[in-house]
Specification:
With about 130 residues, the chain is mainly α. The chain has helices at about 5-15, 15-25, 30-45, 55-70, 80-95, 115-125.
Length: about 130
């Protein structure tokens, strides 16, 4: 096995709770791993909403920014990280203003301006604007 394969195996063995503990100590790489592991579940939740793609992306980004900010408050053992993140997303959905004309149609991504949360998350991760690779 090559060294890079061994590193990948070691990363996959780290629990979500251990990653959150690392995020609480400002580990951007642990944060990126949490996003990569859990964003499909959050995206499934957001896909069911009658909002446009820009709003979905912004809600997803805002959810993960809150994870970054609150990770230090949630380092207890036994934490179900996915459920915690889904709860954040549900609250953000409930608090989100509904834009006029948002009926689920997708705007042309080339014409939509990224929101503050999307830009902040991209800068934090040093990734392109999307919270998912």
């Amino acid at each position: 096995m090559q060294d890079s394969d061994a590193n990948t195996d070691a990363i996959e063995e780290v629990s979500d709770a251990d990653l959150i503990a690392s995020v609480s100590r400002s580990s951007v790489s642990a944060f990126a791993q949490i996003i990569d592991r859990t964003s499909p579940a959050v995206q499934d939740l957001l896909t069911a909403l009658p909002i446009d793609e820009g709003q979905r992306v912004e809600l997803l980004a805002a959810t993960y920014l809150e994870v970054w900010w609150l990770a230090g408050c949630h380092t207890e053992s036994g934490l179900d990280v996915v459920e915690w993140i889904i709860d954040i997303a549900r609250r953000r959905i409930a608090d989100a203003p509904v834009s006029p004309g948002s009926s689920g149609e997708t705007r042309d991504p080339g014409t939509a301006r990224p929101g503050y949360a999307s830009l902040e998350l991209a800068a934090l991760l040093r990734r392109p604007r999307s919270p998912r690779p």
